[in-house]
Structure to design on (874 residues):
C-alpha cells in the first residue's frame, strides 16, 4: 500500500485566509482485529494490549468465486466454493469473516449445512469432525451489500467498504462507471467470506460475469472469456500460487487495456498490462512504461525471479488511498493519470516501484500480523531508493532518502513515537504511518551499509526463499541476515525494530598535530535509550581521505583518529546512512573543503547550506552550485543566493535568468523565476514571466510565472489565465484557480462552474481547485458565493472519499467568513440609514438577507456531515 500523505497540507490551505483444536476454537476470537491480549497493568512499562498474530485454526487451500453484479443496488451476487482443512487440531466447524452480507445458504456435497451468522462472523457446522490430514469443501451462496453497512476508515485508507461501485447508475456524466475492490487491511471479507488475516493464504479462482462491454481484471491469469446468450460475458481468472486474502482484487469497467511485456530470463514473455480509461490510452505507456525494466532490475537484484503469472496496473476513480499491491493486479488512484506534458514535471515511478516490490515483500512473503507491517512496507519504501539509485544515480536516491527521513520525523512529531514492530497499537490502521514506511526503509539502508551490499542482498534472497508463500515476523528477517553475515544482529534489531525513536547527536571535533578527536553526545529522550552506532568517519588530511569505522555507544563518546599534517575536514557518517538528527560544529573552511571534495549529495548540500554567508567562500560556493550537475543542489543554491547581500544577488541575476529559461529541470526553472521576483525590476519580471508563460512546456513553470506576474501586473496574469483555461491539465487548472482565487472578480465564478462541469480536473487536482474556489468564494458577495453551493453539494456527493473527508473544512471556513460578512453588511446598513442614504441602506440590507439565507444553507449542509467520531469508524 502506498498512501498519499501530502493531502492534509494541501487541504489546510483552504482554511487559511492567505491562501491525512474444537476447544481452542471456542476461545479464539475471529473478529477483524488480530488477537488482543490483556496485560497486567501493575507491571511498569508493560503495554495494556498486545496485538498478536491471529491463531491459525484452519488452512484455506483454494477459494473459487463466481460473481455477478446488480449495478442499480450496488450488490454482488456470489457463490463461493471454499476448500479448507484444520490447521493442526481436529475441528467440526469453519469460522469465516463475512461483513455486511446476506448469507443465503451453505452446503457440502449438495447437502445443507447449519450455520450462524452474527456480528460479521459466519460460523459453519461441518458434517463431521475433520483432522489436519483431511480436506473438505463448502459452498456458500451470498449477496454482498457494501453500501448497506456502516464503514470506517483512517488517514491512510479512508474507507473499509471493501467493494466499491463507482457511478453505478451512470448519474455522473464525467465519471466512467466501474467496480473495484480494496482489501487491505481486512476489507475483502466484505465481498467474499474468508479468513481475513495476513497470516492466512489461499489459491484463487474467480469467474466474473459482466456485460460484454466491460473489461475485467483480477489476480492470476485470464484462463478463458466466454460470451453468454444474454449478452453478458464470463471471465475466468485463476492464480495457482497462494496469497493472503487481503490481496484478492477485482476491477470492472470500460477500460482500455494497453499491452506491454516483460521478457523472463528463460526467454518467455510475461504480460504487463495497463488498464486505463479510453481518453488515457495514448498516455498509458508514458505513465507506466518503466514497469518491465523495474521487474527485470528487482528480479536480478534480489536473485528471485518475479514469482507471479502477470503484472497489471489499473487506475480507478475515487480510490481510497494511494495505490495497492494486489497480487499481479495493482490499483492506482486517478492521480496517476498524467499527460505526457504533465510528466515533464512529475511522474509516479516511485509508487510504481513501491507496489511492484511488494510482490516479493508482502505478497510472496507476508507479514504475519499487522504489528509486523513494516516487513511489507519498509521494503516497498526502500525499493524507491534502489530504483532511483539504479535509474537516476545516487544523488537522486539520497535526495529522496532525505524526504523519507523528514516524513518520518514529521509523522512521529504529530502522531507520537512507537516501536517499529508495534504490538500495542490502538487500531491496525495506525500502522500505516511514517514508522512502518519511512523509518523502516531508512533502517534497511543502515543495515545494508553496516553488513555490505553483497551480504545484504544475499540476506534478502535467503529471507524470500525460506519464507516464500508463507507469513513471517521480523525475527525471521534477522535470522536470514545472521545466516549470511555470521553475526548476531540482535543488537541492531532490538534497538531499531523493538525500540522507538532515533538518535539526536551533538558532534564536535578537535584537531591537534597528530590526531583529530571526535566527540559524540547522544541527546535523545531517555525513553529512546542509547543507540549503538557503527559510523564510518572520513578524515581529510595531508594523506588525502582516510575512512575508518568507529563505534559510538554511550551517552558521550570520544574517539581519536591519528592524522598526518593539517586536518582539512572530517565527515561523520561518510556513507550518509544514519537516521538521526545531528548538530555539528565545524569551521567554515572545513565546510568549504567539504563542498569541493565530497562525493555524496547529502554532504555537498550540507556544506552549501552550512557555510556561513559571511564567509568569503560562501558566494563562490553558491555560484558554483548554480551550475551543479544535480538539480536539487542548483535549487538549494538559488535559495542560498536569495539570502545573501545585494551585491552577491546582483552577480547571480544573469545566471538565474538563464536558468529560468534553459535549466533542464522544471522545478529549478520555477525556483529561478520565484527568486528573481526579489531581484529584478517589475518590468523585467513581467517580461520574464510572460515569456515563460508563452514558451515553457512545463505547467509548474507556467504556474510559477503566473503567480509572480500577478504580483506586478495582476491584470496581465488574469488575461494569461484566460488563454490557458482550456489546457487539458489538472495541474494547470490548479495554477489558474489559485490566481483567480486571489485576484479574480465575480466574473470568474463562471470559470469554476465550467471546470466542475467538465472533465478537466479529477482526483487530487480537483481537490486543489476546490481549495482555491473556497478562498475565491469567501471574497465574493453572497449572490456570487451562492453559485458555488451546488458545486460543493455535488462534489460532496460524487467527489470521492478525500473530498468527503475535507468538505467540512471548506464549508466551515465559508460559514465563519460569512458570519463576519453579515456583521459588516449590517454595519454598512446602519451607517447608510444614519447618513440618510436609502439606496445604500437597501443594498446593504439585501446583502444581509442573501447572506443569512446562504448561512442557513451552510448550516444545513454542515448538519448533514458525519460527526468526526463516525468518520473515524468509532
Amino acid at each position: 500500500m502506498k498512501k498519499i500523505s501530502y493531502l492534509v497540507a494541501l487541504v489546510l490551505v483552504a482554511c487559511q485566509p492567505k491562501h491525512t483444536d474444537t476447544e481452542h476454537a471456542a476461545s479464539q476470537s475471529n473478529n477483524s482485529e488480530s488477537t488482543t491480549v490483556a496485560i497486567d497493568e501493575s507491571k511498569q512499562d508493560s503495554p495494556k494490549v498486545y496485538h498478536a498474530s491471529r491463531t491459525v485454526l484452519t488452512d484455506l487451500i483454494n477459494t473459487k468465486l463466481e460473481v455477478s453484479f446488480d449495478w442499480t443496488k450496488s450488490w454482488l451476487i456470489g457463490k463461493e466454493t471454499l476448500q479448507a482443512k484444520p490447521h493442526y487440531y481436529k475441528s467440526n466447524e469453519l469460522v469465516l469473516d463475512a461483513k455486511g452480507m446476506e448469507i443465503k445458504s451453505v452446503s457440502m456435497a449438495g447437502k445443507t449445512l447449519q450455520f450462524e451468522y452474527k456480528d460479521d462472523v459466519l460460523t459453519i457446522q461441518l458434517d463431521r469432525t475433520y483432522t489436519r490430514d483431511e480436506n473438505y469443501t463448502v459452498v456458500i451462496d451470498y449477496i454482498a451489500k457494501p453500501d448497506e453497512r456502516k464503514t470506517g476508515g483512517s488517514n491512510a485508507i479512508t474507507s473499509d467498504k471493501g467493494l466499491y461501485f463507482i457511478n453505478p447508475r451512470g448519474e455522473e456524466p464525467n465519471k466512467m462507471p466501474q467496480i473495484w475492490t480494496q482489501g487491505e487491511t481486512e476489507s475483502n471479507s466484505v465481498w467474499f467470506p474468508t479468513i481475513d488475516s495476513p497470516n492466512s493464504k489461499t489459491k484463487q479462482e474467480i469467474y466474473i460475469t459482466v456485460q460484454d462491454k466491460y473489461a475485467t481484471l483480477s489476480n492470476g491469469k485470464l484462463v478463458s472469456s466466454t460470451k453468454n446468450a444474454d449478452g453478458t460475458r464470463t471471465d475466468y481468472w485463476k492464480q495457482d500460487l497462494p496469497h493472503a486474502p487481503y490481496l484478492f482484487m477485482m476491477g470492472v469497467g470500460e477500460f482500455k487495456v494497453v499491452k506491454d511485456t516483460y521478457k523472463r530470463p528463460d526467454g518467455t514473455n510475461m504480460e504487463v498490462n495497463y488498464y486505463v480509461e479510453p481518453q488515457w490510452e495514448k498516455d498509458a505507456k508514458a505513465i507506466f512504461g518503466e514497469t518491465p525494466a523495474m521487474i527485470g532490475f528487482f528480479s536480478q537484484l534480489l536473485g528471485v525471479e518475479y514469482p507471479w503469472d502477470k503484472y497489471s496496473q489499473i487506475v480507478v476513480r475515487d480510490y481510497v488511498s494511494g495505490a495497492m499491491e494486489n497480487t499481479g493486479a495493482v490499483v492506482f488512484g486517478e492521480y496517476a493519470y498524467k499527460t505526457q506534458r504533465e510528466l515533464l514535471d512529475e511522474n509516479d515511478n516511485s509508487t510504481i516501484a513501491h507496489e511492484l516490490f511488494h510482490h516479493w515483500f508482502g505478497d510472496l512473503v507476508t507479514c504475519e500480523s499487522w504489528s509486523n507491517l513494516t516487513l511489507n512496507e519498509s521494503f516497498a519504501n526502500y525499493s524507491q531508493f534502489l530504483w532511483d539509485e539504479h535509474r537516476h544515480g545516487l544523488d537522486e536516491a539520497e535526495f529522496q532518502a532525505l524526504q523519507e527521513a523528514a516524513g518520518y520525523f514529521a509523522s512521529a512529531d504529530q502522531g507520537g513515537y512507537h516501536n517499529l514492530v508495534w504490538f500495542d497499537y490502538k487500531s491496525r490502521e495506525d500502522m500505516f504511518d511514517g514508522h512502518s514506511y519511512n523509518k523502516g526503509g531508512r533502517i534497511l539502508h543502515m543495515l545494508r551499509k553496516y553488513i555490505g551490499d553483497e551480504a545484504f542482498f544475499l540476506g534478502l534472497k535467503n529471507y524470500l526463499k525460506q519464507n516464500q508463500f508463507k507469513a513471517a515476523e521480523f525475527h525471521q528477517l534477522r535470522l536470514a541476515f545472521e545466516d549470511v553475515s555470521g553475526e548476531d544482529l540482535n543488537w541492531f534489531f532490538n534497538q531499531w525494530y523493538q525500540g522507538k525513536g532515533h538518535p539526536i547527536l551533538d558532534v564536535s571535533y578537535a584537531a591537534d598535530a597528530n590526531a583529530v578527536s571526535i566527540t559524540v553526545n547522544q541527546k535523545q529522550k531517555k525513553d529512546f535509550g542509547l543507540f549503538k552506532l557503527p559510523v564510518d568517519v572520513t578524515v581529510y588530511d595531508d594523506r588525502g581521505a582516510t575512512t575508518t569505522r568507529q563505534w559510538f555507544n554511550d551517552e558521550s563518546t570520544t574517539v581519536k583518529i591519528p592524522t598526518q599534517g593539517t586536518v582539512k575536514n572530517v565527515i561523520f557518517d561518510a556513507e550518509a546512512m544514519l537516521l538521526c538528527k545531528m548538530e555539528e560544529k565545524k569551521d567554515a573552511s572545513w565546510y568549504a573543503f567539504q563542498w569541493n571534495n565530497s562525493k555524496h549529495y547529502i554532504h555537498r548540500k550540507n556544506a552549501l547550506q552550512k557555510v556561513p554567508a559571511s564567509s568569503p567562500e560562501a558566494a563562490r560556493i553558491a555560484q558554483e552550485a548554480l551550475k551543479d550537475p544535480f538539480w536539487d543542489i542548483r535549487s538549494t543554491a538559488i535559495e542560498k543566493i536569495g539570502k545573501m547581500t545585494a551585491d552577491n544577488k546582483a552577480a547571480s541575476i544573469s545566471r538565474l535568468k538563464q536558468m529560468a529559461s534553459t535549466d533542464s529541470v522544471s522545478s529549478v526553472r520555477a525556483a529561478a523565476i520565484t527568486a528573481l521576483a526579489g531581484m529584478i525590476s517589475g518590468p523585467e519580471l513581467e517580461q520574464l514571466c510572460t515569456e515563460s508563460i508563452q514558451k515553457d512546456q512545463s505547467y509548474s513553470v507556467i504556474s510559477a510565472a503566473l503567480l509572480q506576474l500577478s504580483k506586478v501586473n495582476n491584470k496581465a496574469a488574469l488575461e494569461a489565465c484566460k488563454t490557458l483555461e482550456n489546457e487539458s491539465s489538472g495541474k494547470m487548472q490548479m495554477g489558474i484557480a489559485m490566481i483567480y482565487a486571489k485576484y479574480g472578480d465575480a466574473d470568474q465564478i463562471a470559470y469554476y462552474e465550467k471546470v466542475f462541469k467538465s472533465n478537466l480536473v479529477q482526483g487530487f487536482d480537483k481537490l486543489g481547485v476546490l481549495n482555491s474556489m473556497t478562498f475565491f468564494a469567501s471574497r465574493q458577495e453572497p449572490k456570487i458565493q451562492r453559485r458555488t453551493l451546488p458545486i460543493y453539494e455535488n462534489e460532496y456527493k460524487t467527489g470521492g472519499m478525500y473530498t468527503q473527508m475535507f468538505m467540512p473544512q471548506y464549508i466551515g471556513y465559508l460559514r465563519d467568513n460569512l458570519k463576519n460578512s453579515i456583521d459588516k453588511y449590517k454595519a454598512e446598513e446602519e451607517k447608510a440609514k444614519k447618513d440618510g442614504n436609502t439606496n445604500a441602506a437597501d443594498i446593504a440590507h439585501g446583502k444581509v438577507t442573501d447572506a443569512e439565507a446562504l448561512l442557513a444553507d451552510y448550516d444545513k449542509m454542515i448538519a448533514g456531515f458525519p460527526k468526526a467520531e463516525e468518520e473515524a469508524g468509532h
About this structure: Residues 166 and 497 are 40 Å apart (CA to CA). The longest helix spans residues 801-834. DSSP finds 28 helices and 31 strands in the chain.
